[in-house]
């Protein structure tokens, strides 16, 4: 009886103590180490320098490309006084597009997730926008001459390069920095305009008198604007007119503004990648052959932050 009692007590003790001992076992080796991976914190503060490349589309306005050239060439002529020849050509806009590239430098200041800064960039474009127009008229002028005026004009604007200085503002989201930007722009534009002018005519009354004369005597048919020996008094319409080409060119500095937006990505703490859209408007603020240039650019860039 005593033996059976001891056996029962021993079994009860083991049954109670076994779960407690099991609860004290450490299975950490089976679960693996308990830790969180390190999160890289990007500090956007500091100076950065980089380069960019992209694709630009530009348009140039030619508001007053031809009028001064024609007005000066035909001053004191009936072509201008009677027919206002300097207004015969229209100055339409011209477009161009192609690759662009350059460099930029800037400084960021960060507080919390907000990032503000200033950036300057330089862009080389070197593309030419152009416009053409042709017009002519055939009338009897105030002197009684049948006069013909023909104008053939062309104007170009080569956008050489431009630079901007801009403020930037963005919001940091981890490694990403979406931002907007805006500021001032300045660029160099080389403009050229040329007009080929033909202004010629003959005395209509004298020509008609010769055609209807029965006496056999002809009077001299006065004329102007033909090449040497290029006028036939018996067939004026077959004459060869002289041509006068007038030109003007100028390299000018144009100022304006720039707006844009982009997304920057911190590949590491010191290497930044970006994609950006930029709109630049330049104006020379004078009545000349190209008084407005607008440039739309989509580009990518990379920078080293210090």
Automatic annotation (TrEMBL):
Principal location: membrane
Gene3D superfamilies reported for this sequence: 2.40.160.20
GTP-binding keyword on record: no
InterPro entries xref list: Beta-barrel_OMP (IPR027385), OMP-like (IPR051692), OMP/PagP_B-barrel (IPR011250)
Cellular compartment(s): Cell outer membrane
Alphabetically ordered keywords of this record: Cell outer membrane, Membrane, Signal
Signal peptide: 1-22
All copies of domain Outer membrane protein beta-barrel, residue ranges: 43-306
Superkingdom, natural source: Bacteria
Family from the record: Belongs to the Omp25/RopB family.
PANTHER family: BLL7405 PROTEIN
Protein name: Opacity protein-like surface antigen
Organism: Methylobacterium goesingense
């Amino acid at each position: 009886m005593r033996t059976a009692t001891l056996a029962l007590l021993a079994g009860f003790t083991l049954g109670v103590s076994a779960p407690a001992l099991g609860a004290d076992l450490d299975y950490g080796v089976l679960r693996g180490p308990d830790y969180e991976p390190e999160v890289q914190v990007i500090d956007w503060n500091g100076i950065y320098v980089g380069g960019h490349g992209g694709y630009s589309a530009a348009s140039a306005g030619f508001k007053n490309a031809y009028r001064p050239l024609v007005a000066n060439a035909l001053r004191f002529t009936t072509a201008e006084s009677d027919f206002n020849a300097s207004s015969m050509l229209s100055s339409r806009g011209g477009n161009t597009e192609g690759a662009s590239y350059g460099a930029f430098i800037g400084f960021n200041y960060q507080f919390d997730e907000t990032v503000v800064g200033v950036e300057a960039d330089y862009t080389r474009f070197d593309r030419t926008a152009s416009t053409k127009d042709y017009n002519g008229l055939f009338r009897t002028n105030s002197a009684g001459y049948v006069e013909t005026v023909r104008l053939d004009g062309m104007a170009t604007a080569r956008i050489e390069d431009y630079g901007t200085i801009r403020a930037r503002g963005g919001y940091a989201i981890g490694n990403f920095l979406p931002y907007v930007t805006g500021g001032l722009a300045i660029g160099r534009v080389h403009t050229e305009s040329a007009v080929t002018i033909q202004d010629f005519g003959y005395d209509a009354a004298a020509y008609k008198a010769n055609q209807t004369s029965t006496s056999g005597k002809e009077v001299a048919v006065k004329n102007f604007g033909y090449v040497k020996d290029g006028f036939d008094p018996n067939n004026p319409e077959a004459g060869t007119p002289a041509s006068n080409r007038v030109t003007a060119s100028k390299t000018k500095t144009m100022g304006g503004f720039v707006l844009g937006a982009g997304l920057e990505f911190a590949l590491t703490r010191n290497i930044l990648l970006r994609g950006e859209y930029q709109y630049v408007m330049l104006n020379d603020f004078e009545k000349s052959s190209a008084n407005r240039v607008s440039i739309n650019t989509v580009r990518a860039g990379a920078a080293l932050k210090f």
